[in-house]
């Protein structure tokens, strides 16, 4: 028994002994040393987050209340959306010197305390914040907070609580690469000052803007799309010439602003003017004279009556391709329509008759919507359809005479 007791430890030692001790120069470089693994060491990744690539950290929807630690310095893409973060540590963010995209959508970030670092955050390489800061509680962007983000191309700050006092003339002025700025769904009463000259898209919809001043837009000469829907401009909020500095403006969106007339002295190169759901009651002979390049004009759901639409109101718009006058109070077809018109929407008016004269020469017209009017079989004049060779009639006929193609509703951003 004593012998057996002494033998077992010896056998155990033999089983565990790796062999003769290695001497210098005898190591096998292809074989791992004792206690090492042949696999590369695991990448650092915050608990519960996923890191599908060496430069990507995804912490989406984890109900995080504290900024995650152990984020690799090599991170270029950091997703923190759909959490409960209330503040962001400046020191931790400034450490991530390679960060290029940061997503903070749908958190509880405010402008208080350390959250001031929310916008000064991430080093100097950020190019895109994919809807990153909307749906938070930001009411102020501190002076200089964005001054080093010179590579930033897109900035999303919609659905916050920004006011005029929360921005100043330097807030965006240093963003010399910025092309897209979304400030919709905030509490702004004026257009922000100091907009960068590189800006191409400015979204200011659903604020409280009452007046647009030319001086605020003078620096944004490259602006192509200006979205001002659902503000409070009223009859005096967009004075004549206020948008003149925007010589390259392509699209102006003014849905739901209480406007009582088409704004005057708009940029000559304007391509699309979107004015539905306002209070425009008349169109004069020169109201659209400043925009001869218009291709799309949307005046749907205003208060236009035939007696107050001048017979030459559209004559200068030789490039007009789409005209939407749906939902007004028209009793007859407008005259002087451009020959190149391809879509004419007149549904939901009070049309009582159709004569061939207003449609003469519209040989490129492809879509004509006349649904929900007061037309009957006997109201269609002889020869009305004769010159509309390109017209695509879809759907059924109303009263067996009037084609009502089911045109898709125009999309209006909200």
UniProtKB/TrEMBL annotation:
InterPro entries: Leu-rich_rpt, Leu-rich_rpt_typical-subtyp, LRR_dom_sf, SLRP
SMART domains the record matches: LRR_BAC (SM00364), LRR_RI (SM00368), LRR_TYP (SM00369)
Transmembrane segments: none
Acetylation among keywords: no
Extent of the signal sequence: 1-22
Keyword Repeat (UniProt): yes
Protein's name in the database: Podocan like 1
């Amino acid at each position: 028994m004593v012998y057996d007791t002494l033998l077992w430890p010896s056998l155990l030692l033999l089983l565990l002994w790796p062999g003769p001790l290695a001497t210098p120069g005898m190591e096998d470089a292809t074989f791992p040393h004792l206690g090492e693994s042949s696999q590369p060491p695991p990448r650092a990744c915050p608990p519960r987050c996923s890191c599908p690539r060496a430069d990507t950290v995804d912490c989406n929807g984890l109900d995080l209340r504290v900024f995650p630690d152990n984020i690799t310095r090599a991170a270029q893409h950091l997703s923190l959306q759909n959490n409960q973060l209330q503040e962001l540590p400046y020191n931790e963010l400034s450490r991530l010197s390679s960060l290029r995209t940061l997503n903070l959508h749908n958190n509880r970030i405010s402008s208080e305390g350390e959250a001031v670092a929310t916008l000064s955050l991430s080093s100097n390489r950020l190019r895109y914040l994919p809807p990153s800061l909307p749906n938070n509680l930001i009411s102020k962007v501190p002076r200089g907070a964005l001054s080093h983000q010179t590579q930033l191309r897109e900035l999303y700050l919609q659905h916050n609580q920004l006011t005029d006092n929360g921005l100043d003339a330097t807030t965006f002025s240093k963003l010399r690469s910025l092309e897209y700025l979304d400030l919709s769904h905030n509490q702004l009463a004026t257009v922000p000052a100091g907009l960068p000259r590189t800006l191409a898209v400015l979204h200011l919809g659903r604020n409280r803007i009452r007046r647009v001043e030319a001086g605020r837009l003078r620096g944004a000469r490259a602006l192509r799309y200006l979205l001002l829907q659902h503000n409070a401009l009223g009859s005096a909020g967009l004075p004549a010439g206020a948008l003149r500095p925007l010589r390259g403006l392509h699209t102006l969106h003014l849905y739901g602003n209480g406007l009582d007339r088409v704004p005057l002295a708009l940029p000559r190169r304007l391509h699309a003017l979107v004015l539905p759901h306002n209070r425009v009651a008349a169109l004069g002979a020169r109201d659209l004279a400043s925009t001869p390049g218009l291709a799309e004009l949307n005046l749907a759901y205003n208060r236009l009556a035939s007696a107050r639409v001048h017979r030459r109101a559209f004559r200068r718009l030789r490039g007009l391709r789409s005209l939407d006058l749906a939902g007004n109070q028209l009793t007859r077809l407008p005259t002087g329509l451009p020959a190149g018109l391809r879509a004419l929407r007149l549904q939901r008016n009070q049309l009582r008759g159709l004569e061939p004269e207003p449609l003469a020469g519209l040989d490129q017209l492809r879509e004509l919507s006349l649904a929900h009017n007061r037309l009957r079989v006997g109201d269609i004049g002889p020869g009305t359809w004769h010159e509309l060779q390109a017209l695509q009639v879809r759907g059924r006929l109303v009263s067996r005479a009037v084609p009502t193609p089911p045109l898709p509703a125009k999309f209006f951003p909200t």
